[in-house]
Amino acid sequence: MRGLPLLLVIATVWCSCSSSSETAHFGMEMYYELTSLNSGMSGEILDKEELDFRESIEFFPDSTFIKQRVYQDSTSTAFGKYDSVNSGGNDYLKLNYSDDSYLIQSCGNSLVEHFSILSESEIYNGGYLLCDGPGYYYTRTKK
């Protein structure tokens, strides 16, 4: 019985050490801007200055997000909830949209979008690449 408290302390330390540093920062407000686009099969990389729109995703502590695309004469917005997922040793964000939108970047007709967490400051969505579409790189910035 005396070993039980020690076992609990060891388990707590082990769990806190094994959590991913990339996903640990999620759960606080973060703002990401689209910084470049992989155009698909051609492999051409376009910087945000070469695009006719600006795009951002803001993540909130309550696991909600807002994605916004701004053109010169209009703005589109989509929102929903996100989860942090670890699959095959890789960290991802799974965005579940509330409504259908052309801002959802994935093949097929889905309300779900997946982002690879590349680093603490960069996420990537290559969901369109499977159907010869673009891949999107976002960098964490200040709003």
Q: If you had to describe this structure to a student in words, what would you say it looks like?
A:
By secondary structure, this protein is mostly beta strands. 14% of the residues lie in helices and 47% in strands. It contains two helices and nine strands. The chain has helices at 3-18, 21-24; strands at 30-38, 45-47, 53-59, 64-71, 75-87, 90-97, 112-119, 122-125, 135-141. An eight-stranded antiparallel barrel has the order 1-3-4-5-6-7-8-9. A hairpin with a 2-residue loop joins β5 (75-87) and β6. The longest helix is centred in the N-terminal third of the chain and has 16 residues, at 3-18. The relative contact order is 0.18.
Strand residue percentage: over 45%
Strands ordered across the widest β-sheet: 1-3-4-5-6-7-8-9
What is the SS-derived class? mainly beta
For this entry, what is the oligomeric state of its chains? single chain
Order of helices and strands: HHEEEEEEEEE
Question: Overall mean pLDDT score?
Answer: 81
- As a whole number of angstroms, the C-alpha radius of gyration is 18 Å
Any low-confidence stretches, pLDDT <50, length ≥5?
Answer: 1-24
First-last Cα distance = 52 Å
CA-based shape: globular
Q: Please, how many helices? A: 2
- Give the helix level as a range of percent: 10-25%
Brief overview:
The chain is 14% helix and 47% strand. With 143 residues, the chain is mainly beta.
Which terms would index this structure?
143 residues; mainly beta; disordered N terminus
SSE map:
Blueprint: H1 3-18, H2 21-24, E1 30-38, E2 45-47, E3 53-59, E4 64-71, E5 75-87, E6 90-97, E7 112-119, E8 122-125, E9 135-141
Antiparallel strand pairs: 1-2, 1-3, 1-9, 3-4, 4-5, 5-6, 6-7, 7-8, 8-9
